[in-house]
Specification:
Strands 3-2-1-4-5-6 form a 6-stranded parallel β-sheet, with helices on both faces. The protein has 147 residues and is α/β, with parallel strands linked by helices. The longest helix has 22 residues. The protein has one domain: Rossmann fold (3-Layer(aba) Sandwich), CATH 3.40.50. The chain has 5 helices and 6 strands; from the N terminus they run βαββαβααβαβ. It starts with a strand and ends with a strand.
């Protein structure tokens, strides 16, 4: 039984992933800005932000793997808010990767987007492409195992 963290686990996709992981017997911790209305029994909830280093350290402590689904995903809002999109997606991901590295967590599953292969998606696409580049470099430099 793995101990896993799901960022964005209170959202639509994240909550279903949490259900599936709990159903398979994993110990699940959820990190999201808002408490989950659908948290299954046995799952742990941490309410906090990817921008907070102390929250990230607490969230990754003792886990074997991280499923990273949290982020700024509103394409229309991202077109008007490029800096906020980069803060949430790129800097949030980097903060999480650093917290994982400090805690010795080396398994990372990243929810990206089909837009990384497209010219569409604007600043959202840019932020996800940058995340993928950093994840690849963390793998080369620090031995991160990622999907």
């Amino acid at each position: 039984m793995a101990r896993v963290l799901v960022t964005g686990g209170a959202g639509f996709m994240g909550s279903h992933l949490v259900d599936a992981l709990v159903g398979r017997g994993h110990q699940v911790r959820v990190l999201d800005r808002a408490p989950s209305r659908w948290l299954p029994p046995g799952a742990e909830m941490i309410t906090g932000d990817l921008a907070d280093d102390a929250t990230l350290a607490a969230a990754v402590r003792g886990v074997d793997a991280v499923y990273h689904l949290a982020g700024f995903a509103d394409l229309n809002a991202a077109r008007q808010q490029p800096v906020e999109t980069a803060r949430a997606n790129l800097l949030g991901t980097l903060g999480l990767l650093e917290a994982m590295r400090a805690a010795g967590v080396d398994r990372f599953l990243f929810a990206s987007t089909v837009y990384v292969y497209s010219r569409e998606g604007g600043f959202y696409r840019c932020s996800k492409q940058a995340c993928e580049s950093y994840i690849e470099e963390y793998a080369r430099t620090f031995g991160l195992r990622y999907t």
